[in-house]
User: Fold Methyltransferase from Propionibacterium freudenreichii subsp. shermanii.
Amino acid sequence: MEFGPGVGLTAAELLAARPAFYVGIEPNTEGRAKLDAVLAGRPARVVTAEASATGLDAGSADLVVGEAMLTMSSPQQRRAIVAEAARVLAAGGRYAIHELALADAAPDPDRRTGRGEVSREISRTIKVGATPVKLAAWRALLTDAGFDVVWQGTAPMRLLEPSRLIADEGPIGFARFATNMIRRPEARRRVLAMRNSFRAYKADLSAVAMVAVKRPTQH
Assistant:
């Protein structure tokens, strides 16, 4: 099960592992053509629902994946999303997340809003609410919901850097991206502003991935 599959990039990787079945949880019904193309002819379906309330049976999944969803959610929303992941997973099932993390030396965000200096600046630039937290807070979010974190990895924050784009999109995809930036000055200005903001706070941000296992006693 994947929360927020978007255009299906992660879905394609998951399906390459030949799961018995794949379910994408996507609240938006528009712009699904690319995702539908990835899932066509495969043992897969998309459920139109919020990640915090999938409507699926408890214990019906053995793996839940989410990328950047929790970072873009409020503290209350992210707790609800993690609780739903715990509910739909069978005991021993795995929950994998890929998010933004604050460095330990960065100022602590507000406990109620989850916002701090870094998140306010990033949110202002990308026009979407972003509330990264420190590694210990990500772990606590998972353990409080009934998970045990069994693996954690971090990487430097390199979003929108050319080398990262080439690695993610491939040479052809990067060339297409660069062409679009040349043809669309307003989009180029926004992307460059986002990259400059990420660079300005690169010492305070990192990418983090965690894999957590649902405890047998969790229902």
Q: What stands out?
A: The radius of gyration is 18 Å. Residues 2 and 65 are 5 Å apart (CA to CA). The domain at 50-157+203-214 is CATH 3.40.50.150 (Rossmann fold).
